[in-house]
Amino acid sequence: MQDGMKIRANTRDYVEALRLERWPRCLAVIPGFIASITLVPQIPGDYLHTYILPAGQLLLAFLLTLAVSAANYIINEITDVSTDIYHPIKKKRPAAEGRVDRTKLIILWGILLILSIGTASLCFKSNALILCLLALAVAGILYNVKPIRIKDIPFLDSTFESANNPIRFLIGWYILGTAFPPFFLLLSWWALGNFLVLGKRVAEKKFLTEEQSSSYRRSLKQYNLCGLIGFMYVNAAISVAAFAWFAFQSKLNSFLISIPFVVVYLVFYFKKTRKDMESAVEPEKLLRNPYFVIYTLLMAAIFIIAHIFN
């Protein structure tokens, strides 16, 4: 009986290492999918081919993106085991606490990648979508694994990590789209992602001691708080300006009404990074805030209305 309980507890530890609670980050495939419908003329068809099949493909793309992201978190779990112990939140991760076996994690990583890429190859005709899933996996290796380990290079670490945002967007885009999406739309997504990642760095620099931050992440030792905040401002400005220029170029002027609401969204997140490290490190926990959820739904409604009246 005790062995059975131990096995179940051990299984939970491996599931925890996948960090499936970060699933909202994979929702970036949905804006990519919607953008392809909005910007690329679709061939008219029956109800099944116009609505049902694309919706099913979107769900599958989301699940495959989630699987590759989980595989990347396994790599992160393994490579950061010696530094997570210095972080007040991350020291509780399964690998940092010695609750999981490294070899089993590597096997699980391989299984997730084979299943996700294999399923994508069987179910999607778009080679570009499959390449984007592969790019997401390769990005996880370059970011975490030595000798490259981009996460240790100041400013490049956040810029490279935030590249996951446009990659996930492209996965959604290539469900139906064939041509490359508008550059400024993709740039806006990338800069938005960098803004969010920098929020984590700001919170860690602010709330961790100098010894903790330099032991936990090499790049943090070379940061200063003013520089990080300044870089956040720059990325917020790039994101908003790039989106405005995209809307203007694409003659989607109705989408410009969403910009003030986006700015409020960015300000809200920035304030949270200055007050609460946990929300900055794990932005998904903001979903526990009812005001944040309501405002998120309001923004979604604004984008839908802008699309309808464009």
Task: Detail the topology: elements first, then pairings.
Elements (H helix, E strand, L loop, with lengths): L1 H16 L11 H11 L7 H33 L22 H22 L3 H18 L11 H6 L2 H10 L9 H25 L2 H7 L1 H4 L3 H25 L9 H17 L1 H5 L8 H20 L1
Helix pairs in contact: 2-7, 3-4, 3-5, 4-5, 5-7, 7-8, 8-11, 8-12, 11-12
Describe this structure in words.
With 310 residues, the protein is an all-alpha fold. The protein folds into 2 domains: 1-181, Tetracycline Repressor, domain 2, CATH 1.10.357.140; 182-310. It is built from 14 helices and no strands. It has helices at residues 2-17, 29-39, 47-79, 102-123, 127-144, 156-161, 164-173, 183-207, 210-216, 218-221, 225-249, 259-275, 277-281, 290-309. The protein is globular and about 55 Å long. The N and C termini lie far apart (63 Å). The model is unreliable at 1-8 (pLDDT under 50).
Short description:
The protein has 310 residues and is an all-alpha fold. It has 14 helices and no strands. The longest helix has 33 residues, at 47-79.
Average pLDDT reading = 86
Structural class of the helix and strand makeup? mainly alpha
CATH superfamily of the largest domain: UbiA prenyltransferase
Query: Low-confidence parts, pLDDT < 50 over ≥5 residues?
Result: 1-8
How helix-rich are the residues, as a percent range?
over 70%
Number of domains: 2
Strand content: under 5%
Number of strands: 0
Main pleated sheet: none
Distance between the terminal alpha carbons, to the nearest Å?
63 Å
Going by CATH, the architecture of the largest domain would be Orthogonal Bundle
Shape, per Cα inertia axes: globular
Order of helices and strands: HHHHHHHHHHHHHH
The CATH class of the largest domain is identified as Mainly Alpha
Continuous helix count: 14
